[in-house]
Specification:
The protein has helices at residues 13-21, 43-57, 86-96; strands at residues 6-8, 26-28, 65-75, 78-80, 102-111, 114-120. By secondary structure, the protein is an alpha/beta fold. The chain has a domain at 6-71 and 104-120: Alpha-Beta Complex (Maf protein). Strands 1, 2, 3, 4, 5 and 6 form a six-stranded mixed β-sheet that branches.
Length: 121
């Protein structure tokens, strides 16, 4: 059986690195999606929705396996977005330092008309 073409629906260098470490041959298609949380959206639902949105946002040939994912940090029920710059990253790390927080990841896979999404915390 021939391996289907794999498409990574992500611009994340880390996700690219992880698939490469697995020895997979794949191409990258960076999806254009709004990553804003919906009002009152739970962090686990948020990462699942974003992974699914990214999955749907890329055009691929029939038979291709599309992999999409999203990760967020939750602190006191708040979804912490990506830092905008180095100062924002430092401020975020100071907020997290010594405090319990959660990391949530949503992963979505699609091949033809079949799709599955899972989340892990």
């Amino acid at each position: 059986m021939t391996q289907p073409p794999i498409v990574l629906a992500s611009g994340s260098p880390r996700r690219h690195e992880l698939l490469a470490q697995l020895g997979l041959v794949f191409r990258v298609a960076v999806p254009d999606v709004d990553e804003s949380p919906l009002p009152g959206e739970h962090p686990v639902a948020y990462v699942g929705r974003l992974a699914t949105d990214k999955l749907r946002a890329v055009e691929v040939d029939d038979g291709a396996l599309v992999i999409a994912a999203d990760t967020t940090v939750e602190l006191d029920g708040e979804i912490l977005g990506k830092p905008t710059d180095i100062d924002d990253a430092r401020a975020m790390l100071r907020r997290l330092s010594g405090r319990t927080h959660s990391v949530h990841t949503g992963v979505a896979l699609r091949r033809d008309d079949r799709a599955v999404t899972a989340t892990v915390s």
